[in-house]
Amino acid sequence: MSDLDKAIEQLRQCRPIPELQVREICFKAREILIEEANVQIVDAPVTICGDIHGQFHDLMELFRVGGDCPDTNYLFMGDFVDRGFYSLESFLLLLCLKVRYPDRITLIRGNHESRQITTVYGFYDECIRKYGSANVWRYCCDVFDYLALGALVIGAGTSVQPTRSADGEDVETKVREAEDEVEIEVIGLGGVVTRQMLRREAGMINSTNLTPSALPHLSSSGPAGPLLTGIPGTGASGNSRGIATPNNAPANTGGAVLCVHGGLSPLIDSVDKIRLLDRKQEVPHDGAMCDLLWSDPEEIDGWGLSPRGAGFLFGSDIVKQFNHLNNLTLIARAHQLVMEGFKEMFDSSIVTVWSAPNYCYRCGNVAAILELGEDNSNAVLRSGGEEVLFNRENTRRLASTYMGGSMKRGGPGRRYRVFEAAAQDSRGMPSKKPMPYYFL
Amino acid sequence: MMAITFYASHFGPTSTFAHPAIQATTRPAPVANHPHPQTVHTYRTNKMSSTSPPPSTSSSSMPPPPPAPAQLTAKEVQAVMPSAVDAGRTITVGGITVTTRKLPILNAAEIEAMTEKLGIAPPEMIFGNNVVSIKGVAKADGAPGEKDKTWKIEFNALDALDLVDKTGSDMLKVAYSAAWQKQRENMHEGIKEVVKPFDWTYSTHYRGTVTENARFEPTQQQIPLDKLRRQDPILFFDDVMLYEDELADNGMSILSVKVRVMPARLLLLARFYMRLDDVVFRIRDTRVFVEFAEGLVLREYQEREDSYENVKKKLMPYREDVPAIMRDANQMVEFLPLQGTVVEKMVL
């Protein structure tokens, strides 16, 4: 077993690794990250995760629910550190996995991956406490500066393979699978399918003799024209489907998905503009790089200023226009706590994914991860057997998932897996019952 | 292990929601009594649940109908309704009943409903179903027509937030706002509109929600600190979060209510703490004191505030502990000068 594998094992048990090893791993990580683009290209299938915030045991729960790395291809949208008890172990584990399996895990930067923010919100103090000096914090901050600002998921299918329900209605389910494609599926707590949105046009897609013009218009980019080769968001791509599939088979292509921690920027009207930024620096207080990590979608028209006096809010029209211009079908972002773990907005053109259950150990929220399936393959992301096993372990839990707003069809097939916080034990979490004391 | 010492000060002895195993005093409260019952009915579930697959659809050219809101099944209702333990913990001593209830933050539907009621977006962590209440009965004195009077003073997030300035007339700005605005002016001339201006620090001067039959009048009496300093046994204690916001990582804003009940008296402290990094610190305390034997109910309201710069100077000697202290309202109260105190006495 290599030193790196040993470090991964140790971190999986939530035990910090020696300072010298941190230095070495951070150095190696930087070598890998420096080669990555500002907007890293990631092939589907991929599982997209939101904020973690040092909630190590919940990160372990995430891996249990979503599958282990490298079996599952992961994309984390930042905010690994601060607020939780184990920022150090959480970030180092993700970083070790990045060094060990660079093609199976993508890390992009959140607004908390910054020197200024980590000194205020916990990560700095945690490093001092666990190592007695700021060295480890410094190594980590140097890595932060090299993290990508976003990622573009290409080759996602328009549908996901329906998950067998816990109650196992195999026959009927199979009939349905043959006729409809599942565009959105929500797997609630305990692995129970709580919601499936079907794409009615599925029957057409499945027929063998279809022509491109017969395809439903799955994205805002208009009819499927000649398929150009190129990455969405670059001048080389002529449509939302991205790189042409073999035989020009256009079926089940969900278009590209832009992943970014916060949101859009008025300075950025194309994905290419993100590529032009010089990202290797501390997160600035203004400018495009700042906006990408800080801005929020809001029910407004156009752009707005946050009442806080800094930061942008962007409305539905901005997202739709950006997606159209860049041949995107979805923007996935994190940054905002959502009680339900995820929230689709603006006719499903943007989604917030939140992966820190029971945030700060007191909010009682559930978390979610977003699975995007593979183009044209109806790939099973995880075997049915595992899901059933998961169900059995968790039958006492029940799911209720609320999806806000009306759903307009379009975009990639997506499966949200909703999960709860790992069981709290004696690992230093605040107990649920407060300790009485003589406050005045 | 070291994590405990550090975060104990940050998160304090706060907790999340009630747990059956440790709630000996838990008993169901009538739901109708609660002013803000959970908006369970606003949940929507798709008919295509795990137990009832949808009718198969043919490849017709008909536009797909909108997702049909379906009735909740009994199983699902159970999942979203607060269970009996969520009704709270309660204790009755000396004729006074104290109830606390702790539930998770509001879900999307509840947040929507609250936003509509308030006219402003609630804080990021909004414990809209949490509540602390003190209830008492004033016995009729025997005069003809006199009846027992039940009074109640309650603390909840909705009423606290209703007192937040919703006009934006007195709005604070984050520290780097000026620099940010200046940089922006050159680049985005078109973007001028501030979205829904309001006091986004959620500063409130909430002193509790009081039943109509009780009113508070100014008094010279003081809350007897000597009695409260005595280590009388604590029969009941709780710490209930009402809301919390991270001010988009520019500080913190938090309103929580602590209560301790001793054999002869009780003390409640509703503390609002706000730190806007490099700008200001603010504490607003409401204390409710009840002396059971006398039927005395006092309410004290205090405001404390100072600039970030001043506080930072005062905290200099604490060096590496400064960030932790700045997260802890209970320590910060020592460093913020008192701006004013009002003591009132309850009259029925």
UniProtKB/TrEMBL annotation, chain A:
Keyword rRNA-binding assigned: no
Alphabetized GO MF terms: metal ion binding; protein serine/threonine phosphatase activity
Catalytic activities: O-phospho-L-threonyl-[protein] + H2O = L-threonyl-[protein] + phosphate
Record carries keyword Secreted: no
A Pfam entry, by short name: Metallophos
Family designation: Belongs to the PPP phosphatase family.
Record-annotated Serine/threonine specific protein phosphatases domain positions: 108-113
Lineage: Eukaryota, Fungi, Dikarya, Ascomycota, Pezizomycotina
Protein name, per record: Serine/threonine-protein phosphatase
TM ranges: none
TrEMBL record, chain B:
Family matches, as Pfam families: TIP41
Gene Ontology CC terms, in alphabetical order: cytosol
Stretch list, region Disordered: 27-72
GO biological process: TOR signaling
Annotated Pro residues bias: 52-69
Classification via InterPro entries: Phosphatase_reg/MetRdx, TIP41-like
Family, similarity comment: Belongs to the TIP41 family.
UniProt xrefs under PANTHER family: GAF/PUTATIVE CYTOSKELETAL PROTEIN, TIP41-LIKE PROTEIN
Protein name: TIP41-like protein
Originating species: Orbilia brochopaga
Lineage: Eukaryota, Fungi, Dikarya, Ascomycota, Pezizomycotina
